[in-house]
Amino acid sequence: MLRFFVALVAAKMAKLAITILKPITHSEGSHFPGQLALKICPYFLSRAARPNLVIAVTGTNGKTTLSNMLSDVFQHAGYTVISNRWGSNMEPGVASILSENSTLSNRSRAQVAVVEVDEKSSKRIYSRITPDYLVCTQFTRDSMMRNAHPYYIFDFVNNNLPNGVKMILNADDLISSSLKKENPRAYYSIAKQPFDVLKKSLVNDAKVCPICNSPLTYDYTRYDHIGYAHCDKCGFTSPEADYVLTDMDYEKRIIRINCKGTSHEFHMVSDGIFNTYDQLAAISLFVEYGLDIEKIKSAFEDLHVVESRYMTDEIDGVEFTSNMTKSLIAPACSAIFDYITSRPKEKEIVLFIEDPHTIDNNAYMYETDFEYFNNPSVNKIIIVGKRPQEFYLRFLFAGVPKEKMVQLGSIEEIDKHLSFKRGTAIYLLYDNYQVSTNTRAREIIKKALEGGAAHD
After folding, report:
1. 160 in the Ramachandran plot: left (φ > 0), alpha (ψ -120 to 50) or beta?
2. What is the largest CA-CA distance in the chain?
3. Enclosing H/E stretch for 55
4. What angle do CA 26, 29, 34 make, to 5 degrees?
5. What confidence tens digit (pLDDT) does each residue in 396-412 have?
6. How far apart are the C-alpha atoms of 364 and 137, rounded to whole Å?
7. pTM (predicted TM-score)
C-alpha cells in the first residue's frame, strides 16, 4: 500500500511540474504522470479511487469525439466529470486522470469518469477497472501497421471485458454488435435514409453470415460494412435497435430519435455520418443511465465537435472547412471522402494526410475509396506533403483527370493555386499529426480572403 501512495504523490508532483513548465515546453504531457505512477506501482489502476460511475468508450473510430460528447453533456447536467479528453487512451493515460482527480487520501473528486480505451489496451485496463457501461462506436478495418483486421480487435475487447458490464452497441455494425453475448446490452441504429444506397466500397469486412456462413445480402451500406444486412438462407438479420434515429433534417439541423418507442428531437451536432453515430450512441447511453431527457436536449443545443477535428468558416462568400482525416485507416478516409464530395457546392480539396511515423507505407490508399473524388463538383485537388506523387498516382487510378491536380511540398503556397471563387467551398483534409499544419493552412486562406482574393 505504501508503494501505491508513493506513486500517487509522484504522479501529482509530475502533473504540477508539467503545468508549471507548459509555457516553456508547450506540452500537455497527458500520459506522463500515469506512466510514472505505473512504473512505481504496477497495480496503481487497481488501487486508485474511481468515481461512482465509470463509462468506457471504445471502437476503431470516433472514440475521442464520443468521449467528449459524453463528458460535456454530463457536465452540462451538473455532474463532476473526469476524462482522458485528449485521447491518451492507454493504461498511463487512464492512470493520469485518476491520480490527478483524487485526493492524497485516495478519494475521487469526481462523480463520473468517461474513459476512452484503446482496444489493444483492453486486457491491461479492464482487468483493473470494471466499467459500469461500455459504449462502442464500431469495429472497422484499421491500420495494417497496428490493428489490421476488425475481428483481431474484436477479440481483444470480447475476451477481456468483464461479465456484467452493460454495453451500448451499434446495431448497424455486425462485428461489434456481437460483443459479449452474455452481457446486458442496448442497441442503437440509424434507420434507412433517402440518401442510403448499396455503396460499392472497396472494403467490407462482414460478408459472411455468423450463423450459417452463407454470403450476406446488404440492403444498404454507409461505409465499409456499416449498414443493414440479412441472410437469405437462414433468416439472420442485423439486430433490432432500442434507439433508432429515424429522420435527419439538415435544414433545421434536427435529428429525430425513437427511444424505446418514444420519439424525441435533438439538435444535430454535425451532418457527418461518423459524428451522427457518435451523437446517437451518446444519447442512447444517457437514456439508459436515466438522465433527464430535457437535460440531454438542452446540452446538445450548444454542443460542437472539437475544433481540432472539425472547423468551418466563411469569408466573402468562400467557405473553408477543416476535417481531420486519419491516414492509414481506409474506412475512415472513405467515409469522409464520401461526405465531402456529396456536399452541394463546387469545391477544391487540399489534402495533407501523411502520418509522419509511417511515411513508407501507402498500402491503405488502395483500400480507400479515392474514386469519390472523380466527381464533377471537385474542381481541383492540391496534394501537399513529402510523397505527393503517390497520392497523385492513386487519384489517377481513381479516374481523376490529371489537369485537376497540383502537387506541392509545402502548405505555404496553397493560396497561389486556390481559385477563391465566391459560392464555392475549400476542404482541408489533414491527419491527426498535422493539426499545426492545418492551423497554418487556415491562416493562409483567411489572410488571402481578408485581402480581397474572393471573386465572382
Report:
1. alpha
2. 71
3. strand 53-58
4. 170
5. 999 999 999 999 999 99
6. 21
7. 0.90
Q: What are the cell numbers at 95?
A: 492512470
What are the grid coordinates assigned to 409, written together? 511540398
Q: In terms of DSSP H, where are the helices of 302-403?
A: 330-341, 388-397
Strand partners, 158: none
Question: Do 212 and 231 form a contact (C-beta atoms < 8 A)?
Answer: yes
Number of C-beta neighbours around residue 19 at 10 A: 11
Q: What's the rounded mean pLDDT across residues 278-287?
A: 98
Quick one: cell of 124?
491491461
- Helices H / strands E in the chain, number of each: 12, 17
Q: Side-chain half-sphere of 12: how many Cα atoms within 13 Å?
A: 16
| Cα pseudo-dihedral 362, 367, 368, 370, rounded to 10 | 90
**In whole angstroms, what is the distance from residue 449 CA to residue 20 CA?**
38
Q: Which are the contacts of 15, defined by CB distance < 8 A and separation ≥ 6?
A: 29, 33, 96, 99, 100
The Cα 148–Cα 140 span in angstroms is 9
By the 8 A CB rule, do 147 and 121 touch? no
Contact 66, 57 (CB under 8 A): yes
Q: Are 33 and 27 in contact (CB under 8 A)?
A: no
- Residue 168, helix vs strand vs coil: strand
* Residue 9 φ then ψ, to 5°: -65, -40
CA distance 128 to 48: 10
pLDDT digits (tens, 9 = 90+) for 182-219: 999 999 999 999 988 888 788 899 999 999 999 999 99
Q: Name residues whose C-beta falls within 8 Å of residue 350's C-beta, 6 or more positions apart in sequence.
A: 382, 384, 411, 414, 418, 426, 427, 428, 429, 441
Is the pLDDT reported for residue 308 higher than 70? no
Q: Rounded to whole angstroms, what are the CA distances from 382 to 252, 313, 350, 367?
A: 33, 19, 5, 21
Identify the CA nearest to 29 among candidates 72, 92, 118, 82.
Answer: 92
Spell 207-225 as b/e; 16+ CB within 10 A means b.
Answer: eebeeeeeebebebbbbbb
- Sign, CA torsion 409/414/419/423: positive
Length of the chain: 456
Cβ 264 vs Cβ 330: under 8 Å: no
> For residue 28, what pLDDT is reported?
62
